[in-house]
Amino acid sequence: MNLQDFLNANPVDNLTEDVSISPRFKDEKGNPLKFTIKAMTPGEFEDIRKKATQIKKGKKVEFDNQLFNLSIAINHTVSPDFRNAESIKKLGVATPEDYVQKVLLAGELSTLVQKINELSGFDVAMNDLVEEVKN
């Protein structure tokens, strides 16, 4: 198999993984409850980045890191469904963003976003790439 065949056989638009983000999430038997996440495509990443970037007066660029992270979590978590209208209503919040902030601790959200980023290919350190090129 050559690289072209590999790429054709492994598209990234439906790449998912089950991950554990916190010891807080356990079933009644103490087994970890896992989140199902999906990878971001380059286009999805760019859309989220643009949504979180605003140009203010004087061409000053502001990046909303909280909106960026919430958007990644909401758009790339398959299960649980942070957009579930019944769950949003049940907790008395108005938006998926509010819901995520109501059900996840700050560190849990950070870990979830980190896992999504890793699945999306942002886990390879520059030193690892340099070593790979050398070999």
Helicity, as a percent range: 40-55%
SS summary, helix count: 7
The helix/strand series, from N terminus to C terminus, equals: HEEHEEHEHHHH
Distance between the termini: 21 Å
Cα radius of gyration in angstroms: 18 Å
Shape annotation: flat
By CATH, the architecture is named: 2-Layer Sandwich
Summed over residues and divided by their number, the pLDDT gives a mean of 90
Largest sheet: 3 strands, antiparallel
According to DSSP, the number of beta strands is: 5
InterPro entries: XkdN-like, XkdN-like_sf
Protein name: XkdN-like protein
Pfam family, one: Phage_TAC_5
Structure description:
The chain starts with a helix and ends with a helix. By secondary structure, the protein is α+β, with helices and mostly antiparallel strands. A hairpin with a 5-residue loop joins strand 3 and strand 4. It has a single domain, classed as rbstp2171, CATH 3.30.2220.30. The protein is built from seven helices and five strands.
